[in-house]
Amino acid sequence: MTNKAETNQNNCPDIYPSRDNCQSNLMERLDPVVYSDPRQLPDARHTSSQYFSLPLSRELIYQYEDQGFLMIDNVFSPEEIKSYQDELEALRTSHSLKGAEETITEKESGDIRSIFKVHEFSQIFRQLMQDSRLVELARFILNDDIYIHQSRINYKPGFRGREFYWHSDFETWHVEDGMPRMRALSISITLTENQEYNGPLMLIPGSHRYYVSCEGETPSEHFKGSLKKQELGTPSDEHLQYLVKRGGIARATGKPGSVTVFDCNTMHGSNGNISPLPRSNVFMVYNAMSNQVVAPFCHQPPRPEYISARRHITPITNKCSNI
After folding, report:
1. 43 part of a folded domain
2. Domain assignment of residue 37, yes or no
3. Looking at 110-145, which runs of residues are DSSP E strands?
4. pTM of the entire predicted model
5. Who is most buried in 195, 225, 278, 288, counting CB within 10 A?
6. Structural domain harbouring 83
7. pLDDT tens digits for 288-322?
8. Structural domains in the chain (count)
9. E-strand spans in 14-139?
10. In CATH, what number is assigned to the domain containing residue 282?
11. How far apart are CA 30 and CA 138, in angstroms?
């Protein structure tokens, strides 16, 4: 498939074309998944090393490279989890945030769906996103200095929490934000128990190895609707069937404090939550400093700074940990 606009406004080649009134297409990924050499790591599970203070190993990095994600339990202490849960509730009930542009509500109920740029609103979550247990893992996988491209809290209330359809974050970040290459990753930390029935994150193993271009053309201010319900930038049924047939579907269930690390191009989504039990997490995107966004690869202005860091980019230097 070819794109009408082979470069964007910065004359940056568009090697991952999508939308622009083209048909949906599937192509092999052109970028590495893990940018460092996993052979630097020990081949057995451990609790600490010169690289991280997470229980990581060569085997787990190879698993990330193969599947496009990792699920890790028992990273945070009960005291840390309690402080994050308290902060989660404080932000959810904050009067100053209810009408803020960074706060996204459910289309029908008006319940809070997400709060973006949460590391700017919360000292507790800012410290969490600078924690060495997360930062050193991201640095190793991306093999570069990193910064927070995006952060948010996701709330999925009981009874009325809506679904989020299958998508690759990179497709949107590339087209609408101008992220040039697949050199970013996301970390999601559960702050409530994620059960099979309350709308947990679902991921398609191995999907990160394929880039799925999408049909349609990005309209003006698309983010105002897509953050409530994503309908553009989603793969075709045919391509979803292909990816699921190859890899299946994994569900990120677990106790509060469980960590899911996934590649920027891993296909993921979540069902609605009609159970009485809410599902919430804190979510951060680490991008390589060498992969900072350029002009969007569509014919629209960049999305707001709270969705995609563009002007205020600072590499994370704090390696402190609460261990």
Report:
1. no
2. no
3. 112-116
4. 0.89
5. 288
6. 69-291
7. 999 999 999 988 899 999 999 999 899 998 554 43
8. 1
9. 25-28, 69-72, 103-105, 112-116
10. 2.60.120.620
11. 20
